[in-house]
Design a protein that fits this description.
Layout: H1 8-26, H2 33-45, E1 48-49, H3 50-57, H4 61-73, E2 77-82, E3 85-93, H5 95-116, H6 121-151
Antiparallel strand pairs: 1-3, 2-3
Length: about 160
């Protein structure tokens, strides 16, 4: 194992811990993680075909159809005809969907504030220092993952 890859277990453990914290302790339960991810994707990328959403979120087309129907009944998404292909339908996030995403973010921040308050000032400073250093790298890592996902290929340097 190279010296560089010796760090991988520590990085993997950190990312795992961040994932557990985000999913189990900071997320709200009003809507599923898949529903929230789908709304987030629609907010970032704009109107998308249902088939594209299914692939992007890693679920079957029938599962995405059911999810979109549920989100539509809740008023969080709408469907519009695709101008380029009259047979296709585009799924769009609504203002209510954007409100749900904003409320989820506010709730996550509030829960994080409460959790951070359980740490010492020194621990909070350590986390702040790590965040300042790691955030740009984490953003690049996410961009690389999204790019690879979009291309259907493994991430490359």
């Amino acid at each position: 194992m190279s010296e560089e890859s010796d760090n991988y277990p520590a990085v993997a453990a950190l990312l795992d811990g961040m994932g557990i914290l985000a999913v189990r302790h900071l997320s709200t339960r009003e809507i599923s993680i898949t529903a929230a991810a789908t709304l987030g994707r629609l907010a970032r990328t704009g109107p998308t075909r249902l088939t594209g959403l299914a692939v992007a979120e890693g679920v079957s087309q029938p599962s995405m159809t059911q999810l979109v129907q549920r989100l539509s009944r809740q008023g969080l998404v709408s469907r519009t005809a695709d101008r380029d292909d009259g047979r296709a339908v585009l799924v769009c996030i609504t203002d209510a969907g954007r409100t749900v995403l904003a409320e989820r973010q506010r709730a996550r921040i509030s829960r994080l504030d409460a959790l951070l308050a359980t740490l010492t000032e020194e621990d909070r400073e350590v986390l702040a220092d790590v965040a300042r250093t790691a955030t740009p790298v984490l953003h690049r890592l996410v961009e690389n993952a999204l790019r690879a996902e979009h291309l259907g290929e493994p991430p490359t340097v």
